[in-house]
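Example 3.2
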Amino acid sequence: MKRVIPAIALLVTLAGCQRYAAPHEMRGGDTPQSIAISSQSITLPTETVTLPASADIITTNCTACHSAELILTQPKLTPEQWAAEVTKMRGAYKATIAESDDPKLVAALVALQGGAPAQP
């Protein structure tokens, strides 16, 4: 009997739902509603900070989502920490960073910050 109750509850719930009519099934002068689509534009702020030319791999892999200013103001991280960040961007955020670029990208991020931080 316990299995019948969920099935009955589902049927009662579905009975209260209405099926949407296809345009050819509309009755009594109903006409399909039209949708207006228009172009919109926005003005983004001017980028005032740029990455050095030596950071080309960072520009290629990171600036689609991160501004140069954001990249340049990150806390100083060790190569291992940057490698974890790159892995996180690829896994959690689906960044299209080739794994083969990881060593070069990590080295560029560390170099951009003036070398690895001192270990405590």
